[in-house]
Amino acid sequence: xxxxxxxxxxxxxxxxxxxxxxxxxxxxxxxxxxxxxxxxxxxxxxxxxxxxxxxxxxxxxxxxxxxxxxxxxxxxxxxxxxxxxxxxxxxxxxxxxxxxxxxxxxxxxxxxxxxxxxxxxxxxxxxxxxxxxxxxxxxxxxxxxxxxxxxxxxxxxxxxxxxxxxxxxxxxxxxxxxxxxxxxxxxxxxxxxxxxxxxxxxxxxxxxxxxxxxxxxxxxxxxxxxxxxxxxxxxxxxxxxxxxxxxxxxxxxxxxxxxxxxxxxxxxxxxxxxxxxxxxxxxxxxxxxxxxxxxxxxxxxxxxxxxxxx
Amino acid sequence: xxxxxxxxxxxxxxxxxxxxxxxxxxxxxxxxxxxxxxxxxxxxxxxxxxxxxxxxxxxxxxxxxxxxxxxxxxxxxxxxxxxxxxxxxxxxxxxxxxxxxxxxxxxxxxxxxxxxxxxxxxxxxxxxxxxxxxxxxxxxxxxxxxxxxxxxxxxxxxxxxxxxxxxxxxxxxxxxxxxxxxxxxxxxxxxxxxxxxxxxxxxxxxxxxxx
Amino acid sequence: xxxxxxxxxxxxxxxxxxxxxxxxxxxxxxxxxxxxxxxxxxxxxxxxxxxxxxxxxxxxxxxxxxxxxxxxxxxxxxxxxxxxxxxxxxxxxxxxxxxxxxxxxxxxxxxxxxxxxxxxxxxxxxxxxxxxxxxxxxxxxxxxxxxxxxxxxxxxxxxxxxxxxxxxxxxxxxxxxxxxxxxxxxxxxxxxxxxxxxxxxxxxxxxxxxxxxxxxxxxxxxxxxxxxxxxxxxxxxxxxxxxxxxxxxxxxxxxxxxxxxxxxxxxxxxxxxxxxxxxxxxxxxxxxxxxxxxxxxxxxxxxxxxxxxxxxxxxxxxxxxxxxxxxxxxxxxxxxxxxxxxxxxxxxxxxxxxxxxxxxxxxxxxxxxxxxxxxxxxxxxxxxxxxxxxxxxxxxxxxxxxxxxxxxxxxxxxxxxxxxxxxxxxxxxxxxxxxxxxxxxxxxxxxxxxxxxxxxxxxxxxxxxxxxxxxxxxxxxxxxxxxxxxxxxxxxxxxxxxxxxxxxxxxxxxxxxxxxxxxxxxxxxxxxxxxxxxxxxxxxxxxxxxxxxxxxxxxxxxxxxxxxxxxxxxxxxxxxxxxxxxxxxxxxxxxxxxxxxx
Lengths: 310, 211, 598
What we know:
The structure holds 3 protein chains of 3 kinds.
Chain A: H1 3-22, H2 47-77, H3 93-126, E1 145-152, E2 155-160, E3 173-176, E4 178-182, E5 186-193, E6 198-202, E7 207-211, E8 217-222, E9 227-233, E10 246-251, H4 253-270, H5 303-308
Parallel strand pairs in A: 1-5, 4-10
Antiparallel strand pairs in A: 1-2, 2-3, 5-8, 6-7, 6-9, 9-10
Chain B: H1 23-60, H2 76-100, H3 104-134, H4 143-173, H5 180-210
Helix pairs in contact in B: 1-4, 1-5, 2-3, 2-5, 3-4, 4-5
Chain C: H1 2-10, H2 20-25, H3 30-60, H4 69-73, H5 83-119, H6 127-147, H7 175-203, H8 216-248, H9 266-283, H10 286-298, H11 307-320, H12 336-348, H13 350-364, H14 373-396, H15 398-404, H16 408-432, H17 434-438, H18 444-470, H19 490-519, H20 564-570, H21 593-596
Helix pairs in contact in C: 3-5, 3-6, 3-19, 5-6, 5-7, 5-8, 5-16, 6-7, 7-8, 8-9, 8-10, 8-11, 10-13, 10-14, 10-16, 11-13, 14-16, 14-18, 16-18, 18-19
């Protein structure tokens, strides 16, 4: 490659960096710290379901535990050494019925509440990818922001399809530890990994999902507020697992559009076909059937596919 | 407080290792041995079960099966050795029946037959491996297919080897045991192990070769 | 006399060994083997505990050199725990505690000690296999210790050993492989023991000792042994495949260099591991449930409430434990149908556990509670298992688990249910059966100090972890305060660490007591110090080698306490399992003490 071409590529890359920086007003901003012992602030559209279910369950548990303590305290102090023990094997029909009834009632209330709500929440939101799996190329009204994330030791690579709405093309936006999403629009993430298992953790959205080598796993969320939030790794992935931090920035719809457009165009300009194959780690977007199974035709994602792409 | 080392004041003799049991006691000890042997085989069955489960998971989560580019596993020779291993189990059972009837000579003949069939099984199995190896199916380059195929069959073959050792040991020592129950018991434990190995093969063959 | 002669045949009385080698090292006496496991388990418990203290130090004072011990253990980094050290610490802490501390203590020691004595047998069904199981376990212990000394250090992939982190690339060197081999070896020892315990319980019960007359201690050991027989082999399979990947380049879990589109699947390991792993946590608690069930009855002087219900509950949990394992894998991208099935089954398994609890609570209610040392430990176990078990419910549920998975909430949950409950249960058992082990009662004051330090310490540490996990603190982090949502949690972590050091300090009371009991002068110890009717208290403390001079005939269950008729006739509130009742009319009050207490 002659020296002029090389110079052009370098200048293009510098422009791309400056543009990205310029339209990333929050790149040097810090994520707001939490206080107290409650769950971190919830900025997601649907996270309240989880927050509510955990909180109400904890109340149930506290009540049950206190009842148990009271029961034990009475036995310990009122039915102590000076109390006469009842000779009772407790196996009379009535007694058995009472014991079974108490267990069943507790089960139906506490476990039942958990089960029913979880089933609803999973089907409606957390394990439902059908509703947001539209293709922006075919459907103009599709608002889903699709992101492919490659987790590796010890950082998060993220890839957006860019303006052409196809993954693994020159105009893909590729970021490091730096996610941008618009507020109020569903975000559909697919996770992969090229080395060990990691887990993409968004505590402010109440969700996490493992990134498993040789697999593609889905995650969805939707932000309700703008701001910067932590991305953490929630699966032990080596000595520097604790440092695998990323930042999620939620922008207004307008700001996001601007960012996406500029970033996509800079990437297209900075694209280098001679780059190492590792740079094109994206994969064909995986579709899921209604039962949640990966569709046959796009299951073949492997290291080779993930690395090479087309 | 009694001294823990005191012997009981009963008139019975203190037992030695070569303690002679009454027939009733022998039967009882044999029943205990059977329980132990069943649990031992249950353990081993769970080990193989886990490997079959692994086969299932690897296969279910694979994009295609067999994966592209791997040499096809043969069918004829594995079918033949399947028949062989079934025959060896049948012969072993005949041998045990002969033992119970007191016919030591027939017992030994049947046992030798079972061992021979076992050895033939291993020989032909090795031939299958060598053919596949030269055809390009390697344990470390054929992905999950090569890994699970070789491991399942090799692990089973190791058990065949162990089974053959047990059968040979049985051949040598059973005739020398004192009582019919002792002979019967040892033959039973050894035979159970061999049948277990056969049954595992009867699962491997259709799963890995046929299906 | 005929039936006793048969027992003499079947359960012969062996020569009492006199040489040191046969008395203390290669002994086939289940009581000696129990003591061997007790020593071994306690040593590893101390090691695992020390590792926990290092972890807590790092979380309270991140990056600061560990005082005194830092130079010895982390000398290469000036006493500071590095990220590499840290990953090995939490990995080996978990593995050591589970396989080299709790298992030999609860199962190796107490399975061995209690089963023959409580069912009226002279020894285990296979005494030589028993001895072999101890030495196999000891060998595995040596392998673990060796793994600390190899280049690149010991295993560092978490006790869960997930590939690819535990594969060649994530964990190069011999440390991980050695640990897997050590697991293999201890697993073999466990299966050897488990075959023994189950066979013994099935075959060697004394006449009249029906299944439904066995103390819950024996039920706990039996069910644990059954689970061990069936599920440790699955761990062995998982481990073999991992070693094959590490040594021979196979592709079970990880992609080989030229995998050609059919690479290995790390999720396979998780399936195999948790098929073992979930029953394993029940393996580690069933013996404690057995102890608690018994102690609660004995020390409330009251029959165990609906004993059959407790047996059914423990059995139901045992059976169900096999089909709930997927709740460890909710975030792996499993099929939704599979995940939901696991959720339902996991929630269902809480019902028999609840029932068991109710039975314990009912037993102590309207009893006459004696706050003996074993009773304190039993109450403590109920307390920690209650809180810990309840926190399992939001973890069992998928949507709530999406937030709680891999946080300290999980760590607090399993340390309450598994570590604390097993810890308190085991020490309760040690104090209870000390007369059988070493012929003396433990010092009561020291034991009570030990209890209170342990109880307060355990609750402080693990409730602290529940709190920090609820606030989102992830687990297994070298420095948990790197995130904006965890920076403020340093305070609670420090408090939790202080509780941990408090817990560690409190063990000194046990250590003193232990050495006094084992090596000190034996005070006079009554034959039946706790006044209960189970068979082990009909023989001396410690029992003779052959346990029972005559195999007893059993007439009733172990919970005949506070029977008003017995109180009136015999003047005591307990009736032995093998005791003749009503007493022979010829000489009701001329029976000698020893005959009446048979």
